[in-house]
Amino acid sequence: MKKLAILGFALALIGGAASLALAVPPGNVITTVGDESFQPNALIQATFRWDPGSVDVASGHKLTFVYGNQGHDPHTISIVNKDQLPATVQQVFKCKVCKEIFKFQDGHKRVLGPDGGFNEFGDTIFFPPGTSTNVKITAPPGTTLYFMCAIHPWMQGTIYVTR
After folding, report:
1. Which domain CATH number covers 50?
2. Distance separating alpha carbons of residues 19 and 60, to the nearest angstrom
3. What percent of the chain has pLDDT over 90?
4. Considering the chain, what is the average pLDDT of its residues?
5. Residues 102, 9: contact at Cβ < 8 Å?
6. What confidence score (pLDDT) does residue 46 get?
7. How many domains does the chain have?
8. DSSP letter string, the chain
9. Which structural domain, as residue segments, surrounds residue 128?
10. Cis bond leading into 52, ω under 30°?
């Protein structure tokens, strides 16, 4: 059921994840890395993560996200509050903020286009395999933004907004 909800979310938002040809300063790139493995009755493992896990970005500048991991699952790039980041396995599997991110309100979900700012809770970009996307960081200097993948809640990162 969760995969169907994710698929529906993906199809509704596919247009927001198109690769963009925007100028991005060197070093303002975050890549997904990792893989998944499964052994019946023994192990399920996912090592998906953001690389690097934190980045400094000047306010008003672009940040590029590149899909580089070996899996075939989509990701989201979702701004959340620090206290909403799952910190335990139980919180990952019962991710409250993930449910909020996937909730459609008034028939639509706030998803940014190429000109939208990326700076507040709920800002979410759908990120399918084989793509890259640029976001403009519009939060004021001195702000710390926390982001995660609502599909894989252990994928968490930090954006430190600079001058």
Report:
1. 2.60.40.420
2. 19
3. 60
4. 82
5. yes
6. 93
7. 1
8. -HHHHHHHHHHHHGGGG--------TT-EEEEE--EEEETTTEEEE--EEESSEEEEETT-EEEEE--SS----EEEEEE-GGGS--SHHHHHT-HHHHHHH--BTTB--B--TT-B--STT-EEEE-TT-EEEEE--SPTT-EEEEE-SSSTT-EEEEEEE-
9. 2-162
10. yes
